[in-house]
Write a structure and sequence with these properties.
Number of helices: 9
Distance between the termini: 32 Å
Largest sheet: none
Organism: Capsella rubella
Strand content: under 5%
Helix content: over 70%
Radius of gyration: 18 Å
Protein name: GCK domain-containing protein
Shape: globular
Number of strands: 0
Domain GCK: 22-77, 93-169
Oligomer: single chain
Pfam family, one: GCK
InterPro entries: GCK_dom
């Protein structure tokens, strides 16, 4: 579903929107940023992020919060999938990441969205950046929402990541009371 924008959530009027954030909308990615702000969807977000990653020096102030959100998502999922830190001190980082990935896939495939998740993995493995792959991801998101009882840990991690992104985007500009 649609999510309220960071600016509405934190009640920052458009005329008080941080100047440098507005300037970010003037660069090469202005269309994709506006599309994401107008309609928050997975497809619009992916397009905006890819454009920004193609122009990293200009868009670093926006890329850093997105990266921080990804880290929050990973930590949330890790705490769900590997809650006891099973031998984490003894595992090499690469082995731990592999174990986490396998558990994540097993969890995602354990619910009613197994088929669409598998199709999504195919797109990722093929490094397919086509609109078909974005459609698969959007369909997967809708399936997960429809089966939120099972996928609650995933949805909670995704929400925490989104909140982190919003906080980091607006934190420097929110007036302290």
């Amino acid at each position: 579903g649609n999510s309220e924008s960071c600016f509405r959530k934190y009640r920052i009027p458009r005329y008080e929107t941080p100047r440098d954030l507005l300037e970010m909308r003037q660069g090469s990615c202005k269309e994709s940023i506006k599309a994401w702000q107008d309609c928050y969807s997975e497809e619009n977000f992916v397009r905006m992020r890819r454009c920004m990653e193609a122009h990293p020096h200009y868009y670093q102030p926006l890329l850093a919060p997105i990266e921080a959100g990804g880290e929050v998502f990973e930590k949330e999922m890790e705490s769900f999938l590997m809650p006891s830190n099973e031998d984490s001190n003894q595992q090499k980082e690469e082995e731990r990441q592999d174990a986490l990935y396998l558990r994540f896939c097993k969890f995602m495939e354990g619910g009613d969205c197994k088929e669409i998740f598998t199709a999504f993995l195919h797109c990722v493995e093929e490094d397919d950046e086509s609109s078909r792959c974005l459609e698969v991801k959007e369909t997967m998101s809708k399936c997960i929402e429809a089966h939120s009882d099972y996928y609650q840990p995933y949805l909670a991690a995704k929400k925490a990541a989104s909140e982190q992104i919003c906080k980091e985007l607006v934190a420097p500009f929110v007036k302290q009371a």
